[in-house]
Specification:
Elements (H helix, E strand, L loop, with lengths): L22 E3 H11 L14 E3 L3 H10 L8 H4 L9 H15 L9 E7 L5 E9 L3 E6 L4 E4 L8 E5 L1
Antiparallel strand pairs: 1-2, 3-4, 3-7, 4-5, 5-6
Length: 163
């Protein structure tokens, strides 16, 4: 290698490679969220990234099942003064962080976030929400590891979204 060969090195490209079948930009995710949740405004969803990967429903299921929560005690069952210490919104935050940790080596994070909404019992509950590739949005119940397709009867009760 000669003295000035370092000048000949190619610069890294700043181009973002996007697979349109699996990756969307944040404008598309924002649009999908406002369509699924007509009660929120276009500026309400908090989106922290420019691009998001949409997993398949099977990939989502596998991820949810592999997250280890055995060491966590659902504080709803313990009650008392510590009932809010590790409840639904904390589980949703934990799953969101675990998803980010798992996807850190990928080019784009999953379209996976936190969702807080009012339940049929008129109380607030924390979930995770994921936009899958071909099947739309899925709710993730992080405490029980259940995933289910988003139903329209819950879509107007959302008051917090963060991806």
């Amino acid at each position: 290698m000669g003295w000035f060969d370092f000048l000949k090195k190619k610069k890294k490209s700043n181009l973002v490679v996007i697979d349109a079948a699996t990756t969307i930009n944040n404008s598309i995710l924002r649009y999908e969220l406002t369509q699924a949740f007509p009660g929120i405004s276009h500026s309400d969803p908090n989106l922290g990234d420019a691009y998001y990967h949409r997993p398949t429903a099977d990939e989502l299921w596998e991820f949810v099942q592999e997250v280890k929560i055995d060491h966590l005690i659902h504080s709803h069952f313990t009650g008392g003064e510590t009932a809010d210490a590790f409840d639904c919104n904390a589980y949703a935050l934990y799953y969101h962080a675990k998803c980010r940790e798992k996807m850190r080596l990928n080019q784009h994070p999953w379209a996976f976030g936190e969702l807080w909404m009012e339940t049929s019992k008129l109380e607030n509950h924390g979930y995770n929400l994921c936009l899958t590739r071909n099947e739309g949005f899925y709710l993730v119940w992080p405490q029980t590891k259940i995933i289910e397709k988003l139903r329209q009867d819950v879509s107007n009760k959302v008051f917090f979204l963060y991806f």
